[in-house]
Structures are given as structure tokens and as C-alpha cells.
What we know:
The chain is of the alpha+beta class. Mean pLDDT is 90; it is low at 1-11, 15-21 and 429-433. Strands 1-19-21-22-18-14-17 form a seven-stranded mixed beta sheet, with helices on both faces. Strands 8-5-7-6-10-9 form a six-stranded mixed beta sheet. It is 18% helix and 30% strand. β9 (136-139) and β10 form a beta hairpin. The protein has eight helices and 28 strands. The chain has helices spanning 27-37, 82-85, 177-186, 224-232, 249-260, 280-286, 321-340, 391-396, and strands at 12-13, 44-48, 61-62, 72-73, 77-80, 91-99, 113-117, 129-132, 136-139, 142-145, 155-156, 167-169, 190-194, 197-204, 208-209, 220-221, 237-245, 265-269, 291-295, 298-299, 303-309, 312-317, 347-353, 364-373, 379-383, 400-404, 416-421, 436-437. The two termini are 23 Å apart. Magnesium ion binds at residues 204-205, 247, 270-271, 277, 319.
Amino acid sequence: MTGAPGKPHRQQACDGAPAVARALLPVRDAFDRIMAALTPLRAVESVPIHRVAGRVAASDVHASRSLPPFDASAMDGFGLHAADAERRPPFWLDVVGLVRASGTPSLKLAPGQAVRLMTGARVPRGVAQVVMQEHCRIEGDRVEIGALSDRRSDIRRSGEDLKEGELAVAAGTLLDARHILLLAPLGYGQVVVRRRVRVAVLSTGDELVEPGRSLAAGDIFDVNRPLLCALLAAPCVEIIDAGRVRDDRAALRGQLAALARDVDLIVTSGGVSGSAADHLADAVRDGGGACDVFRLALKPGKPMLFGTVAGVPVLGLPGSPRAALVTGTIFARPAIGRIAGLPPRLPTHGAILAAPIARRPGRLEFIPARIRRDAAGHRHALPIPVGALSQLLAWSQADAFIGVPAEAADLPAGHPVRIVMLGGEGYGAASPMHEADWPLSS
Ligand code: AMP
Ligand code: MG
């Protein structure tokens, strides 16, 4: 499933064959190759409508009945006969009944009569118009109609939103409250959605220690695993915390094989930069799988692996936590979206650079930034200065990454840029907030 088109860009085959080319692989090419190699899940399940938020509709849902299901009063007021609706107010009518939202009226209205209607009440036969109660004065069992209401909005007509059989929600929709607005009144108590994508998150490295434990000299805490578990979490995803594996080819191979029996995607970090301690590619190959090790034209995050073990895709992210955050955002999340049945998107927004950026062309560079909006609603992206020793702080304070195109040199303040928002953006497939997908030139 890997190694599709674009072979000249392949940097290093798993079997250690010499690199075909030393050129860095454009990020967009790697993105397209990975997405093309992934297939959406087929498995579905039925879940209660109270729990469908964030899940992906597995099939088209059609209206099982008309919506609204009957002609209903849009307001508290009085129903009039057509003959009276032509009269000039003010005039008096006999009140012959009351219909609440829950009732089924049996009466039939005649000229000279009015029926009191609550909002949502089924409109009795003979009613041509509803007058809002603010325009009416009641005295005993008579009502004075002081003015007529706007005829277009007084009655919600049966089938006005959807006629029976019409499409309510399309297959592949990432469901949220807006869709429940249709599905619940149609009476769907259960919705068939795609099974959650099972994603294993695995760290590799002899130096890694679980946060909370004590560190020996030379050890560091495992940052990437909790980071990726947080980054990739979503209602349509089931994260499997697959722990850590030492830099040991056989152990790695065994863990990958075990995970492949159980998950839809394996996301690892570390062990792909080509040093003597980097065994991920060999472990994938030992397991009979195929893989490519990319040298991406990306900063941060040059090395990355994509392959399969027993048919299960493996995304090997770089070890540096900043690189894991960037590649997790721009590769792992869209990859999971693709497997979940969503369009493989990297949502981006336009912004105006608020301070100059000095750089050399060559790699697509992600720079942490704060985002502010001006009075006109334009986003301004202020790069956060990344000090040599305080890199994590800068990245952790970012609202977004600025994606500076590979070919760009220094950028002046005021230059238009594309940004990728961080935090809370979800796997959004159809949010109008997203102005474009991947217009970051790679
Ligand atoms: P590697 O490619 O395995 O050599 O990793 C590159 C750098 O990232 C090394 O300095 C590793 O110690 C560091 N690193 C790898 N995995 C993690 C992790 N899970 N948490 C924090 N740092 C890591
Ligand atoms: Mg390592």
C-alpha cells in the first residue's frame, strides 16, 4: 500500500538500499501519498443519538416522515378562518377551543370563530391564519383581533423542511448538534456511524521514562506519547496507549505485530532518524511489511516513516516533541480522518504576518504564533520568538503554526500567510471556519 507513485523521491528503502535521491521530499507529496494509501473503515455500529456527536455518519439518512410532521402554529395566538383573515381589524370572534402543543384537535373552524393555539399546536381544519396573541384582546369567550400577523411565518407547514424520503444527513458527515436538530425530530433514536478508528500510540527509545517516575542520569521523560494521545483524541477515535519500546529491533517488531492484530493505525515516535539506535524501519521490514522513510522538506520534522505491518498502516513520527507535534498535526490527524471516512484535510486559515520572519528557503517551516483579530476580523499572526533554551515554552503558548512555504525567503510584516490553528479544532470536515485545505505551498 505504500511506495506508490513518486519513486524518485524515495529516500531510503527499508532494506537499506541506497537512497534514490538526496532531495528532500515536499511535504505535500508525502501527504498525498499517505492519504492515497489509506482506506476508510468499513465497519459500522449503531449508537444512541445522545452519543453521536463527533462520530461519522455511515450512510445517508433520509427523512422517515415529513418535517415538520404536521401544520403547526409558530406562535401563541388565535387561529382564524380564511373568510375572517380577509377582514380589516379590529373585529370580534367567538373562541371555540384551545389546542396545546400536545393535543390533536377534532374541531373544524367556521367563519366568525377563533381557536386559541399554543406554539407548536397542531392547526385544526378550517384555520387559514394564526394571529399572535399580542395582537388580540380576550373578553370571556370572545377575542378581539387588533391586527393580522405576517402570513408567511404564522404556521409551520408540514414538510417545509424535509419531505418524507428526502436526504437529512449525508454519509460521511461528522455529526454535531446541527445534525441532531434534524435527526431527533425525525425520530431517530439510534444512528449508524462508522466504528471508531483504533489508533495505537507507541514511543520508542531507551532513554524514555514514564512521567511521574524518577529519572536516572541520561534519561528523559516520555513526552510524545501523552502529547500524541492528547492531539489525536476525538470522539471518532479510540486511542490505545501502547506504551514504550526500547531501541531493540526484535522487541519493536513484536510490539508492532501485536498491535497490528488490534488496531487500524499505529503511530510511533522516534527511531526514524537513521542513527544506529533507529530500528523502526528494520522492525517493519522484519514483520514482512513495506515502508518508506521520508526525508521531508519540513522544519521541524525531517525524518518520517510510513509503512504497513500485516496490512495495518504505521506512521513513524520523528522523536523531537516539537516535530511530533507538527507531524502529528499535519499527517497523523488527517490520516485518522481519512480512515474515519472524513475527507483528508488539513484545515488552514489566512492571516497577516504581524512581525518579520528571517529564514532560508528550502523547507516548509512551521513557526509557533499567537493569533489576534483586528476590528475588521482579520487574523494577525505574531511569531513567538523561539529561544534556544525555551523552545517548548514558545510552542506551548502558540495559538497556531504559521506554515511558511518551502520556497519563501525572509517575510516582511504585513505579508499574507497561512496558519494551522492548534487546540480545539477537532477533526472538522465541514466547518465554515475552514477557509481552505492545504494551500500551504509545500
Ligand atoms: P530519535 O529519532 O529516536 O533519535 O529521537 C530524536 C530525539 O527525540 C532524541 O533526542 C530523543 O531523545 C527525543 N525523543 C524521542 N522520543 C521521545 C519521546 N517520546 N519523548 C521525548 N523525547 C523523545
Ligand atoms: Mg530514539
